[in-house]
Hints:
- The chain is α+β, with helices and mostly antiparallel strands.
- It has 21 helices and 7 strands.
- Strands 1-2-3-4-5 form a 5-stranded mixed sheet, sandwiched between helices. A two-stranded antiparallel ribbon has the order 6-7.
- Helix 2 (about 35-45) runs antiparallel to helix 3 (about 50-65).
- The longest helix is centred in the first third of the chain and has 22 residues, at about 1-25.
- The termini are far apart.
Amino acid sequence: xxxxxxxxxxxxxxxxxxxxxxxxxxxxxxxxxxxxxxxxxxxxxxxxxxxxxxxxxxxxxxxxxxxxxxxxxxxxxxxxxxxxxxxxxxxxxxxxxxxxxxxxxxxxxxxxxxxxxxxxxxxxxxxxxxxxxxxxxxxxxxxxxxxxxxxxxxxxxxxxxxxxxxxxxxxxxxxxxxxxxxxxxxxxxxxxxxxxxxxxxxxxxxxxxxxxxxxxxxxxxxxxxxxxxxxxxxxxxxxxxxxxxxxxxxxxxxxxxxxxxxxxxxxxxxxxxxxxxxxxxxxxxxxxxxxxxxxxxxxxxxxxxxxxxxxxxxxxxxxxxxxxxxxxxxxxxxxxxxxxxxxxxxxxxxxxxxxxxxxxxxxxxxxxxxxxxxxxxxxxxxxxxxxxxxxxxxxxxxxxxxxxxxxxxxxxxxxxxxxxxxxxxxxxxxxxxxxxxxxxxxxxxxxxxxxxxxxxxx
Length: 458
């Protein structure tokens, strides 16, 4: 009762403080970044919890009223003027150099912290502050992306690192809650599953029901206490008798559900992040591993856990790479991937398969970016999580998107719990890809010889 009374009292004081703030401001001030920054200074200098909460809420509300130019100016000022106190930092450095100690190291750590980090912490105290800060970071990412294209402001990366540093702590795995999504889940959550599905579009409510309601279907999501009813990431799972090689049978309207006692394989066929503002903060590896554990507890007969994954980087690589290991005839054949209906022409599809499948194996096992990383983002995700590249599925996705992005190819990544740690370390330490013999055999003889040499040298 005492806690409830204090909470209500604090809310009342906060709202009254916000009312005073509104009276003291004009509608034009909401569009002015300089007035917004004055409030930020007041927030950093204030100590009262109620007034600080009111100012934090007002800062976030006024930020929402800024146009694109105003938001850019706001971000630029945070990056330029809200760094560490240089005088305090210099003093801490000199003290550390004179006689290093644990206390001096701690002082140096705190002196080096940018003021904007404390500002962001205080903004997070506002009601709904966490959600607004996630949205603000999404805006920042949009600005940074545009700047990269336009070769504009490059000073925002430090601001982004500070926001990510704090969000990574607030969205630590320990705060996340795994929940199963089914047809009895609240409608507002189901609507967000439809909206956020990023791999295989959910067309309508009937399509959603086919994915989460049958006995051989599952959907799980991570939630955070500060973002009520807002899934952060979710995975759709099909229970099957064997490893599938195509997505269409899994999503078919007229398919017959697999009897649960016959299911031996859990297929993760769609993983969707929902919050752009949390980009770069890893949830997926925790999600997959925990879902595997949940499924094993519920269905002990399941013994195989795989993905059926897209290959979004394959077609751009086939079109742009200068060093494709393919003959002139094969390169000319690749041009026919742009022909409408090529996948329905059995003879042409067979000719293309003989060229594209070995190139796909090369793409996964040998092709790298200038920094030595795998090109495909989905491959980086699963292989970095400790999965094994199990199988390349020719014409696994015949949708327009699948043909446009990956020439219809899909792949299966196998999650074998006993091998996850070993595979993860091999990839993290040496960029070594755990792959089945079936995938390795798809390489052309010369490609296999070079691959063997590279693996031996590692």
